Amino acid sequence: MNKILSSISLVLLFSLSLNCTFHESTAHAGFLPFGRMYKAAKDDRAYVVQASDTRLQLQLHKAILAENPSDILAISTFVYLGHGFLVGEVSSEEQSRSLVDAAKNVSGLNGISYYLPLKKNGENYETSSAFEIKIKGMLEPDYPSSKLTVKVVQNVVVALGVLTEQEQEKALNSLKNFNGVAKVINFIQSPSGAESKRDRPRPLRNFLN
Question: Which residues constitute the domain of residue 138?
Answer without folding.
Answer: 48-192
